[in-house]
Amino acid sequence: MIPTRKFAAVLLATVAAAAAIAFSVHAQPQIQLPMPAPQPTAPTSTLNHNLILLDPAHGGPDPGTTFSDHTLEKDITLALAARLRTALTAAGFTVVATRDSDPSDPLTPDQRAETANRTHAVACIVLHATATGSGVHIYTSKLQPPSPDEDAYPSAYVPIPWESAQAASVDQSHRLAANLASALTKGNLPVLSGHAPLRPLDNLMCPAVAIELAPLLNPAGDPTSPADSDYQQRVGAALTSALQAWRDQAEPQAQSAQPSKMGAR
Amino acid sequence: MIPRYQRILFWVLAIASLLMALVLLRGCEQAREKLTRHQNETPLAAPVATASETVRLAMADDGDGSITLVDRDVALPEESTARARALLTRLIAEYSFKNSAHPLESGAAVDDVFLLDLPLQPPVAAGSKSPTQPPSAASDLAAGPHVPGGQLAVINLHGSFADHHPSGIEPETLTIDSILGTLYASFPRIEQVRFLVDGHPRDTLNGHADLTRTYTVVNTANKTAQPAAQESR
Fold first, then answer.
1. How many domains does chain A have?
2. Complex ipTM more than 0.90, yes or no
3. How far is A231 from chain B (nearest CA, A)?
4. What is the CATH number of the domain that holds A126?
């Protein structure tokens, strides 16, 4: 019996040692093994064709423009966003807004852009109002699109600079702005288009435009304030019809990485 | 016979009145010194007579969102930074005139203009031959010149100008484009512009136009805000 016990003990010790050696070999760091470098893959980020992001600018301690009748820009943008949300929802869109109320601590421009970039919305609409000029102003980013010989979506996993995240989408933003302008013109609303150095427009990775409501000049009478509900309703209806058409035109994008905030000011 | 406590009260009040008069006089003197210090117009340099010259101003129009180059006869100093400051002061003054197409409040707008050669060099510590590390944020952001001798203009605006500027994307963008276009027309060496307000970086001009970025000086005339119906992309 004793030799059998010794044999069993030796066998057990041998098995345990073999298991320990096998485990230690398996637990070697992978960097010590000559593994081929992993091939970076450019994840395809498809736009959500039923999702619109609305960004009513200002809010909380930042009132924006104060109009002559003491109306605040932050209240006008919020009211316009509410009207636009209703019209877009009725048209079958899902709407995400950066604010639905007037919080005491609103999101910063960077946080608004982060919210927008996570949604992969088919269009990002930044809403403003002003007492200067007339009609509806449509602005896109001042960034230049990547040159044709420059690969907008390189195969390597390269982070996108935060300050120029919109560059890859700026061509689509121009087309979206043209569609919106056309719809507003059809609705007998004067339109002015341009490019503006506006945050968070440059940080958005979706087709993005800023809509600024200015007083509507009337040939016989006082100008219509951007706070006027009928004026906002007309603008909302025109924008909704343009976005319905845009839903089928927007192109999915392949994106190499999320924008990096390295070097953000 | 006047009671003793009344005599004491009289003298205490008299001394208090005297002390208050002295404090008042000193306060008046200090206020006068402060005012005269700010309004010291003693010439630091001998005035030099300069002839008027024709310069081009990039004038903004809120009505159609356009920038148009117009000629003006202005007497400008020779020194570059003073010249840039005088030119921008004249530009903003034009907007305060009656019936201006881009009305701005009158008052001092540009405190100073600094011209820096590109590319920016990191500051060198005293007694050291190598630049200190890490480089400043400004040197990170400002790229090298496109042509040799290119400059970065740092425009320091008055806080009162920014605070009272009409708020909105259009008016603020037009003001910046007007400044850039005017510098482009008169200062070929200036390639980039950064803005400060009262000597400090500020996020926006008055809630909209981004002042944290480095602007490239380009010809902004007739390039901004064309009517959408006529715009061809």
1. 1
2. no
3. 18
4. 3.40.630.40
